[in-house]
TrEMBL record:
This is Acyltransferase family protein. Coiled coil: none annotated. Residues 1-362 form the Acyltransferase domain. Signal peptide: none annotated. The keyword Magnesium does not apply.
């Protein structure tokens, strides 16, 4: 599963590379096929489906939290204070650092170009929302333009998920599959009203269901057979998906059927319906089965034991939150020196971006994030023990 954490942020960069081609750094007036993105003919699927990577993050979080925390919270072994301390110190140091960096960088972009880069609403109100990591809780003016480090929306939703998760475990409902399925279905309604929160809840609690399936399978004497079946299913699903992406046989068939049964709708609506169905298919079946396959394979056959992969996985949060400030910095450098933004069409530019992002993320993780985490956790643990000592 470290493979997912290591590679996912790198794919997110591909999803956001299109930002360099937005008109006035605000609107995209062309399809991805016409943007001349680096290596697009070879990485088209990653460019188009990479937004679903965030779902994979939430799915993985749900799996790990139910595996590691649920019983400890239900048995009162882990208190709300300790849980919050460890989760806060995981997310906040890098979030705060990138927030302050963008407080400095976005005004520079504005002075150069008369507008911000991609993310707007960089005002005092949205700064406060970001400061408390609640910028995606409905208090912002526009969800998609909630200020400063736009990708940090998922970290904000993650905090909300922590609270829902803790309450569920505290009430000892974490093993109730009916409740969890109900939450997943309810998330579809929430997503219609507020997409970001609904997306997080849906995938997080799908991850919980994947954990329960994994936990059931891990106790069986025929675990190896179950693992092999799941591996085979995952391979078939990916072959089907890759074939569909290459040859579009499902899309072409769906367009014919939609034209027949929904003749009043135009081709744009038909395409949108198909894309929604495809995304639901990925989120609800391919992502969960892939995660289950990896968890079972690691349990049955052992992990890959790749230290460099674990190192990258540990710095995944830094990579995810740092890539947008680095994009803003890139725009400042290019615009300040009068270099054409056509430079972002270059494969070399993309590779150079990765060459800067990955080492920077490793440095931030090991020399800033981890030391700050340790200091805050040590201080928080001492504070938590003081009332107990006084009572004793």
């Amino acid at each position: 599963m470290d493979v997912i954490r290591a590679i996912a942020p790198l794919i997110v960069v591909l999803a956001h590379w299109q930002f360099f081609y937005y008109t006035n750094d605000f609107t995209l007036d062309s399809s991805l096929e016409n943007l001349h993105l680096p290596l697009y003919p070879y990485l088209a699927m990653l460019y188009n489906l990479s937004p679903l990577v965030v779902d994979l993050f939430f799915l993985l979080s749900g799996f790990i939290f139910f595996w590691f925390y649920s019983e400890k919270i239900a048995s009162r072994e882990t208190s709300f204070g300790n849980f919050l301390l460890f989760r806060f110190t995981r997310l906040y140091p890098v979030h705060f650092m990138t927030l302050i960096v963008l407080v400095v960088l976005q005004p520079i972009v504005y002075n150069l170009n008369g507008h911000n880069f991609i993310v707007h609403n960089n005002d005092a109100w949205h700064f406060l929302l970001h400061l408390f990591l609640i910028q995606t809780w409905g208090f912002e003016k526009t969800p998609a333009l909630n200020g400063f480090n736009g990708p940090s929306w998922s970290a904000s939703v993650e905090v909300l998920l922590y609270l829902i998760f803790f309450l569920l475990c505290w009430l000892k409902l974490h093993k109730n599959k009916v409740v969890i399925v109900g939450i997943v279905l309810f998330a579809l309604v929430v997503q219609y009203i507020y997409p970001m929160i609904g997306q997080g809840i849906y995938s997080f609690f799908l991850g919980a269901l994947v954990y329960h399936i994994y936990h059931w399978a891990a106790q069986k004497n025929y675990l190896k057979k179950i693992t092999n079946v799941v591996i085979g299913l995952a391979i078939l699903l990916w072959i089907f998906s890759l074939s569909e992406y290459a040859f579009s046989f499902m899309r072409n068939g769906a367009m014919i059927l939609l034209q027949k049964f929904l003749p009043a709708k135009d081709a744009v609506t038909h395409t949108r319906l198909f894309d929604i169905t495809r995304n639901v298919f990925f989120r609800t079946l391919i992502n969960p089965v892939t995660l289950l396959m990896m968890a079972l394979a690691e349990t049955t056959y052992g992990g890959l034991k790749l230290k460099w992969m674990m190192t990258l996985a540990n710095s995944s949060l830094a990579m995810y939150l740092l890539h947008f400030p680095l994009m803003v910095l890139s725009v400042i450098a290019v615009d300040f020196f009068g270099i054409s933004r056509d430079i972002f069409h270059s494969t070399f530019t993309l590779l150079f971006f990765y060459a800067v992002l990955i080492p920077s993320s490793l440095i931030i993780h090991y020399y800033i994030e981890v030391p700050v985490q340790q200091r805050l956790r040590k201080k928080g643990s001492k504070t938590a023990r003081k009332p107990m000592a006084a009572a004793a």
